[in-house]
Amino acid sequence: MSKVTVVGAGNVGATVANVLAHQDLVREIVVLDIKGDMARGKALDSWQQASIDSYSTRLTGTENYADTADSDIVVITAGIPRKPGMSRDDLISTNAKIVTMVTRSIMEHSKNPIIIVVSNPLDVMTHAAYKASGLPRNRVFGMAGILDTARYRAFLATALDVSPKDIQAMLLGGHGDTMVPLPRYTTVSGIPVTEMISDEDLDAIVDRTKKGGGELVKLMGTSAWYAPGAAAAQMVGAIIRDENRIFPCCAQLDGEYGMKDLFLGVPVKLGREGIVQVIELKLNDQEMDLLNTSADHVREVMEVFEGLDIS
Ligand SMILES: NC(=O)c1ccc[n+]([C@@H]2O[C@H](COP(=O)([O-])OP(=O)(O)OC[C@H]3O[C@@H](n4cnc5c(N)ncnc54)[C@H](O)[C@@H]3O)[C@@H](O)[C@H]2O)c1
Ligand SMILES: O=C(O)C[C@H](O)C(=O)O
């Protein structure tokens, strides 16, 4: 596996390419954007960093899909980000068209890629790419849960004054304010987090996590990119190394958690073939209720998507 395409050379796309290049895992990264010179410039800038940071991954930029031919993995970050006051769902009509067109163009030049979607609203955009690609569900999935748990882990690390490296956590649901961080599946070096923090403080951290994207949009006027870019690069790394790592990702459910034909955040095992397994947790009633509420919200956005005219 050695060719990765990143579509969208904006804040997130450029970060995915740059972080991935630093892992020195792939032969070639192609960065594609409708603004071809921006893609060329960012790829060239990252390539000029190679001798300083010691990696061999060759980066090039383009606006031409022929240059993406025979990609093993494609990360789609193309689309508009939200501005303060907007929800991710407000992006749907613009980004649904972009993600669909991008996926169709990718499939004209790569036979059997793995596609990782980043564009928002994430769960529905992952469905859009799945539908436009014709690929099986194990090869099309979305990045959100790694980012959302990373935020949760960062907030916990600050509150407990420990390293975020020692916090392990799981999270379910759609990538929106109804996401479901799971304290029952959160540990600090194996110690249940509930033994280290009060219920009140933990609740506040769960709530801040759910609104974590919006907090950054408010601060910066646009959405985040360092942690999102690193999260997508981590997924690419796990696939290329065939590691079977378990991450929360947006995957199509086929009966798991009692749901079908819906893309939602769940724990998955990631290896060379993409999603090797969707992992079903034994949820309690309260967790299941929260997951159902989140799924209902994603279904509402799906209805908007189904009503769009994307020719
Ligand atoms: N899943 C997540 O957790 C997560 C995290 C952060 C951002 N996002 C989403 O990722 C997307 C990108 O965010 P960003 O901050 O990088 O935005 P950005 O505006 O910095 O970059 C987006 C890029 O997409 C390009 N683009 C637009 N239409 C295109 C097309 N048809 N073909 C190719 N390129 C095209 C633009 O030219 C631009 O360079 C947004 O939708 C944002 O909401 C998702
Ligand atoms: O919040 C956003 O709009 C971008 C992204 O989904 C995030 O969580 O940072």
From TrEMBL:
This is Malate dehydrogenase. Substrate binds at residues 82, 88, 120, 151. HAMAP family: Malate_dehydrog_3. It comes from Neolewinella xylanilytica. Its EC number is 1.1.1.37. The active site is at 175 (proton acceptor). One of its GO terms (biological process) is tricarboxylic acid cycle. NAD(+) binds at residues 8-13, 33, 95, 118-120. InterPro entries: L-lactate/malate_DH, Lactate/malate_DH_C, Lactate/malate_DH_N, Lactate_DH/Glyco_Ohase_4_C, Malate_DH_type3, NAD(P)-bd_dom_sf. Gene3D superfamilies: Lactate dehydrogenase/glycoside hydrolase, family 4, C-terminal, NAD(P)-binding Rossmann-like Domain. Residues 147-303 form the Lactate/malate dehydrogenase C-terminal domain. The lineage of its organism: Bacteria, Pseudomonadati, Bacteroidota, Saprospiria, Saprospirales.
